[in-house]
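Continuing the series of single-chain predictions for the mutant panel. This is the parent chain; the variants come on the following pages.
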Amino acid sequence: MKTTYNDNAILQEMNNLIHFSCTQSTPKLEKFQQALIKKHFGALEVNNDKVKNEIHLKLMVKEGQYTNVVVQYTSYEEFLKSCLEDDLGNLSFYQNMLTFYNVNAA
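Parent structure:
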């Protein structure tokens, strides 16, 4: 059985959840933001320095070797939205996130 996704609805609800997560500050929503960034960059660790508008990432270069990368942003919400990707693997991940955060994507 093949699972199908309504791409536009999922991406729209993800955009809505990102907006909501940027206007509400809760540990659960911060975990959502970190998970989205981790997925996009394949990062092991993500830290957001809101004072400097920087994301600090720990990335694996190869087995046993890691590097730290700093990504600067002007708008955290726009940065998060830029992490959204429109492919089957990511849409499945986003659908699971929406389900976890109790958002319906028709």
